[in-house]
Design brief:
Blueprint: H1 2-93, H2 97-108, H3 112-125
């Protein structure tokens, strides 16, 4: 009978060893899961920051386009100023009112067809 009691004790100790290993493995898996969850949360926050930066870059790109359009207008502005100065000099040097009117017409003439064409191509591209 002694043998039976020893065998019974061994059988009762075996599940404890297996359950301790299972508990240790479970703890390890739980830590691994928590680490993966933390990585997932950090990735989501990183994605939000990157999307926010992308929005900021879009705003800066739009501002750059506007800046380029303004810079594009400066040569035209200098050309208009040059025409104004020429007409002013012509007025001072000329005694004929007809030539004054001609210079003024040249200064205020606006190519409406070109402007409408530019506007229609801009609205089509957007």
């Amino acid at each position: 009978m002694l043998r039976q009691s020893v065998a019974a004790n061994r059988a009762s100790q075996a599940p404890n060893v297996n359950s301790a290993a299972a508990v240790a493995k479970r703890r390890e898996k739980k830590k691994e899961f928590e680490a993966v969850s933390a990585l997932e949360r950090a990735s989501a926050q990183y994605l939000e920051r990157i999307n926010s930066l992308a929005g900021d870059f879009d705003v800066m790109a739009d501002g750059g386009e506007v800046f380029g359009q303004v810079l594009e207008q400066w040569p035209k502005m200098f050309q208009i100023l040059g025409l104004f100065l020429q007409s002013r000099e012509a007025e001072e040097n000329s005694e004929h009112p007809a030539s004054r009117e001609l210079a003024r017409d040249l200064l205020v003439r606006i190519p409406i067809d070109d402007l409408q064409e530019m506007h229609s191509t801009e609205t089509e591209s957007t």
